[in-house]
Design a protein that fits this description.
The protein has 2 helices and 4 strands; from the N terminus they run E-H-E-E-E-H. By secondary structure, the protein is of the alpha+beta class. It is globular, with a radius of gyration of 15 Å.
């Protein structure tokens, strides 16, 4: 299915500010430059601009690329790492928090604990 990011095997944040005017090929060149790797299939790459109110998600599928653009419709900003020392591997739960406009570190979040 087109745009189904649930099949992605890895999630990468591209640190720093990205020119949000870039399209698919421009974002691929950013990945090659900043991550020093080729764009991999079934991998999600996340980009954020200076305003921190919009995110671009790039994923390569076997037959092409999917580009998703999310703009926060409420007042607020994404908490985005600006240098590579701030980057950590993301879990699906952290990706969900990030796309919801929340910080990826939620120390009070309840894990998969069962409450009786």
């Amino acid at each position: 299915m087109i745009g189904d990011i649930s099949g992605a095997g890895a999630i990468y944040i591209v640190c720093g500010y990205t020119d949000m005017r870039k399209s698919v090929l421009g974002l691929c060149s950013v990945i090659k430059e900043k991550l020093e790797t080729e764009v991999e299939s079934h991998t999600i790459y996340l980009f954020c601009g200076k305003r921190c109110d919009r995110i671009k998600i790039l994923m390569k599928e076997p037959d092409g690329f999917v580009l998703i653009y999310k703009l926060l419709s409420v007042e607020g900003k994404y908490k985005w790492p600006r240098n590579s020392s701030e980057v950590k591997p993301l879990t699906w739960k952290q990706l969900d928090w990030l796309l919801s406009g929340l910080d990826i570190e939620q120390p009070k979040a309840i894990g998969n604990k069962k409450i009786y």
